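Convert to structure. Protein one:
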Amino acid sequence: MACAVKIFARLGIGRAVHADVAREARVSVPTVFSYFPTGDELKVAVVMEVDRFLVLLVNTATRNATESEDRLKSILRAFAEAVESHPDHLKIWMDWSTVIAEPTWSKYEAFQDHVLDTFASLIERGKADGTLRTDLNATIGAHLIMGAGHMIAQMIFRHRDAQLIDEFINNVVHNALFADVRKLEHKVDSVG
């Protein structure tokens, strides 16, 4: 699996095949087929490994933080750290989110729904305990966090400064989820 992840990160979900994995693992092609009998099974196994990794990352990131803002920032910082520690997993995740074809797309939808539900639950908890805006749509907030994870990965792959990434995380979480709507409306009115 480690060799398959490395190859899929390098070549992409649409291009990697059994022979590439065999070459990377220094085994025969039939050996790879014995683990993954079809190309579709190979693709699904790789994206499910990425799914497992990212779900664990999200769950682990929220363990030690007690407040909603800290939990959400911890998740985004965990994405940033994963780009450095597991770049192949993050490259596949980014590719996976754009390959709108089976057999992997339905797996991506299930993964995304699971993670979005986790984010939305965190946001609802924050609304209930008064640490997040009560008018906040949890589904939209969850999508903002998911999208921010993608952008953070891109920023790191483009070698953006760590301070800029941290500022981005703080701005996304604070401005999108915590800012007082009345103040934002006032700013828009005074500018417009």
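Protein two, convert as well:
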Amino acid sequence: MLLLAAATTTASAQQAQVPPGAPEAPYVDPAKAYLFAHMTKARYGVLYYSVSEDGLHWRQVNGGRPVSEEYHGHASIARGGDGRYFLVGNKSDEDPYIRFWVSNDLIRWTPWGTYKPDLANIPGHAGALQRIGAPKLFFDQRSGKFLLTWHTPNVPGDPKDPERYWASQRTLYVQSRDLKTFEGAPRRLFDWDMATIDTIIQPDDGGPGYCAIIKDERYPSYDWTTGKTIRMSCAPSLTGPYPQPGPPLSPNFREAPTLIRAPNNQDWLLYYEQYAGTSYGLSKAPRLRGPWYQVSGNSGVAAWDRYAMPAGLRHGSMIQIDRKQYDAIVAAFPGSVPAASGE
């Protein structure tokens, strides 16, 4: 509690030194950097890399070209207990297999294996369709297990009512120690009667539990004002039970959240896409439980921007890396595409 109070006081003191709206010099730790593995609007599902030294200003490597032609999916990377990195994807939502790759250096990816979930007889999700959306990986240091999540609907689409398909999406999960064998059949991660997709997990920095960052997949309306926003629910254990999620952390029509800790170790940076490929938004908080606010960026006015990303970036995941890894990635994929400067 004392450490948390001290961190909060330090963060508040730093913020007090910069008047609201005044220019800010991003903090850079010479030992840290960040990797964003993502797709692009032009090539959906193909693997690209962008990098950042401060977690706020990003540039694409490899001259804006893909870093792999073999991978396909919504890139999600987790570092296992042995230090290796694991990447998950699938060929499409109709692909019955979830596919894994492994890497020692984040440069060369080798196929690791596949998993074919049995989507029949999911408790609380009768009639699940054979569709697997955006599989994602989280490695839990406490249990030594991977948590694999994805979303699956149980109502077919209808051109006259396309949202009924999305409103039937539920987040499913299984656990595994090695991504070779999996523990039991898939189950729902949340018991709420609410559509959810794009779920990511982060240990709660305020206690022993976990926080799930999700997209509320209901369509926004007067009856459901939180529809198509990023929200959060925190639970005492990895698989719940998770209470109803809190208020939106993003505007409506945002998805694919990804989360990193800023290099000052005092801020959480939550990125999310304004789809389809329009722009990335950013919300910021000192603790996972808030308070959160939305940061100005990609505005076209450089004086307003607190972050910047190249145009056309889409779904993926950000991870912290060290400077040696950063230098190796930049050297392996030379040529960069910086974010567009403001007018």
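The two ends are 45 Å apart (CA to CA). The helical segments are 2-17, 163-167, 323-332.
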